[in-house]
Amino acid sequence: MAYLELEGISKSYGKTKVLDGVSLQIERGEALVVFGPSGCGKTVLLRLISGVLDPDDGDIRIDGQSVVDVGPEHRGVAMAFQNFALYPHLDAFENIASPLRARRFKDEEIKRRVHEIASLLRIDHVLDHTPRELSNGQKQRTSLARSLVHGPAVLMLDDPLRNVDAKLRYEMRLELPRVLKRYESTIIYVTQDYKEAMALGDRVGVLLEGNFHQVDKPTEVYGQPRDVRIANLFGDPPINLFPVRPERSGDGSLRASIGGTSVAMPAGRSDLAGKDCLIGVRPEDVEVHFDAVDQAIRAELDAVTPFNVRTVMLLKTSDETEILSSCPEDNTLETPRGRREVWAKIDMGKALYFDRATGTRL
Amino acid sequence: MASLTLENVTKVYRAKGQDLPAVKQLNMKIRDEEIIGLLGSSGCGKTSTLRMIAGFEDITEGTIRIGERAVNELRPATRNVAMAFEGYALYPPLKISDNIAFSLLRGRVPKADADKKVRMIAELLEIEDILERFPPNISGGQQQRVSLARALVRDADVHLLDEPMSQLEPQLRAVLRARIKDYIIQNHLTSVFVTHDQTEAVALADRIAVMSEGVLQQYGTPAELKETPRNVFIASFIGEPPMNLFDAEVVVEGASRRVQVLDHGGTATFAFSLPDEQEAPHTREALYNGRRIVLGIRPHRTSVGGTGSDDGAVAMTKGRVVSNQWLGDQTHLGVNIGGSFLIAVADRNVQAEEDSEIAIGLPVDALHFFDANTELAFLHGMRLAGV
User: Fold this and answer.
1) What is the C-alpha separation between A195 and A44, in angstroms, rounded?
2) DSSP 3-state assignment of A281?
3) What totals of helices (H) and strands (E) does chain A contain, helices first?
4) Is A125's CB within 8 Å of B264's CB?
């Protein structure tokens, strides 16, 4: 039995249905990331679980017990926010210790627990600093330590890395999973950043317009998205989408036209014949060649835009189809400025196929 | 369209009888048709610089030239610059299409030509479906694109863009950045854009001027900023994930030369040897015994998991995997090396369990050495910095 269960949760404000029959099961100790664009209902969902808001409909169960009628303070649910909100007059140690003191832990136990989490979060050397003396990164860690130190059964984190600088964001992204696992809390983590969702989630729930469109492992959400919207939200640069209708050619093979070039469909996809669909091709599956190659789409390279550790190229074919390609930075030649002719080779075996009318993956 | 020169440009604001310097002795040459990014955090002086070029701020000291003409005394309207404002500054009573066409028509461009240009730029920036609407009825992100469109369609010697793409939704960002870059190049525009976002600067600019506290820290191509950062600030500011930076110390024992890395408390964590054969006299001089340094390496220049040969070109060490995150097109790894935390990026799906031991290769030519006191770079790989 799942540890945290949502069953048919609905919540409306006036005529706006923010959540529409949401169901979700989270295992004990699991880290579930709720991912969605702003306005999708993420924050309302957290508030319902914490008990600050009541659902119009549906049930919330923790460890098999309905908590809908249980006050927020008795649910065993803790929440960490974007802002640090530390007590300014207490040093880092006492800030972290405050939930333990409130629960009347013994001094020795407090000391042990504070030092343990401080060392995990690498703030053990600043425990005697007041918030004013801490860097932003240290404040963030102190705040996180405080929400974890008493081992809440359920910990909800509302976009905690949204406003922190790049260095801290990456460090925390890489260190957080281990710290969270150590405390065995069941985690609900909200973010608008797909990379953060993939990095931190045991599973990712994609919340769109008041309901989960897919709840799955990160690799599945990226590689096997249920529909075209999800495919488009995961990936930067985003997936290329080409409207096509694959047809049988003279030799019996199934082919489709992308950017004015006939491309062979992979074997075993005869189901796509004559169907209006969208071919989804990730930019990393488009190889750009500066000399003619077989089975490639002829195009014009319009712009080269380096992107972090990769290089993104925008190609345009003779029929004005745009193709984004992304490759590791080290593999790119010093590409001259301005337009030039290139050949794009698409790995059709890795392409995704969607129904053009419904957006569902085929 | 024209070159742009800033000579000893200084801006001092006066408030409550106090002098607040915003830009200090800025010298920059911007070539005709170049795309320049002014990059820095808020308060670094980048926006003051842009506004001085546009003519919205007085220049306290120094000279700004567009082509050969000094423009210090010219009003904004007579400088022949086009500007996209961070606050958009659209005319609320005018339709979007009229907002974009406004300067064109005032500049006596025939109506039919102006219409054509408006349609073309609207299509490029994906705002063609809102041309008949009014500014208050479109989103902030759309207003920003309209403001950008209005500046880009104009004929001007210099185009100035203040945070032009900060509001772009992620799904549009990659393609619009590329289209704008292509448009600027095809139309031979000279452009200067201000941004706080290093990914945007690197994506668009031919050269980037990084500012901090009113001072130009480094001015170079994105590759130069990545491969030869002048100081620790530039090294940590450019690139994502950011460069790994460690406190370290040089240890010389006889003919061998080691780098001893320290944790934030000064305790030794891991060490590796530097190759002898690659050492020219200048590197031996720079790497003297006991020198306190900051050691840098970019996450994607480390090699992970490979067997790797410790052949001198690559220093090998071992670490413990803290986390292994596959993001679809790259792997991010957190590795604990004897107490130091290293971020590594690989462009493949790396198979490495958490808590397992993993080999880490640090290619010597990817190491950056900064002096611990001045934070200035003195070696990139085994090449002297600044040479």
Assistant:
1) 22
2) strand
3) 8, 21
4) yes
* Domain limits for position A262: 240-355
Q: Which residues contact B178 (CB under 8 A, 6 or more apart)?
A: A302, A303, A305, A312, A313, A314, A324
Asked if residue A331 has pLDDT above 60, the reply is no
A348 contact B CB<8A: no
A282 and A165 within one domain = no
Structure tokens at A307: 């992107």
In sequence order, the 6+-apart residues with CB closer than 8 A to the CB of A83 are none
Instruction: Report pTM.
Output: 0.92
pLDDT 10s digits, A40-55: 889 899 999 999 999 9
DSSP helix/strand/coil, B273: strand
Contact A174, B332 (CB under 8 A): yes
Q: What ipTM does this complex have?
A: 0.92
> Same domain for A88 and A166?
yes
Task: Report how far residue B372's alpha carbon sits from residue A249's, in angstroms, rounded to the nearest whole number.
Answer: 67
Closest C-alpha among B117, B269, B178 to residue A322: B178
- B174, B242, B332 ranked by CB distance to A236: nearest: B174
Pairing of strands B35-39, B207-212: parallel
Phi, psi of B241 (to 5 degrees): -55, 155
Partner-chain contact A198 B326, CB within 8 Å: yes
Rounded to 5°, angle at Cα A24 from A143 and A5:
75
- Please state the domain count of chain A: 2
Q: Residue B265: its chain A contacts at CB < 8 A?
A: 125
- Residues A169, B194: Cα–Cα separation, whole Å: 23
- Give the DSSP letter of residue B243: P
Cβ-Cβ contacts under 8 Å, A234 against chain B: 328
From A322, A42, A11, select the one nearest A204 (Cα to Cα). A42
Chain B positions in Cβ-Cβ contact with residue A174 (cut-off 8 Å): 322-323, 325, 332-334, 341, 343
Which residue in this structure is represented by tokens 């808020």? Answer: B42
Task: Say what the pLDDT of residue A84 is.
Answer: 66
The CATH number of whichever domain residue A8 belongs to comes to 3.40.50.300
Per-residue model confidence as pLDDT tens digits over B32-87: 999 999 999 989 999 999 999 999 999 999 999 999 999 999 999 999 999 998 88
Same-domain check for residues A248 and A210:
no
Chain A's closest residue to B35, CA to CA, is: A337
Q: Is residue A234 part of a domain?
A: no
| B347 Cα to chain A: minimum distance (Å) | 7
Note whether A202 and A117 are same-domain residues: yes
Q: How big is the A-B interface in CB pairs under 8 Å?
A: 131
Cα–Cα distance measured from residue B117 to residue B106, given in angstroms and rounded to the nearest whole number: 14
According to CATH, the topology of domain B4-229 is Rossmann fold (3.40.50)
pLDDT in tens, A240-283: 999 999 999 888 889 999 999 999 998 888 899 999 999 999 99
Domain B244-384 -> CATH class: mainly beta
Length reported for chain B: 387
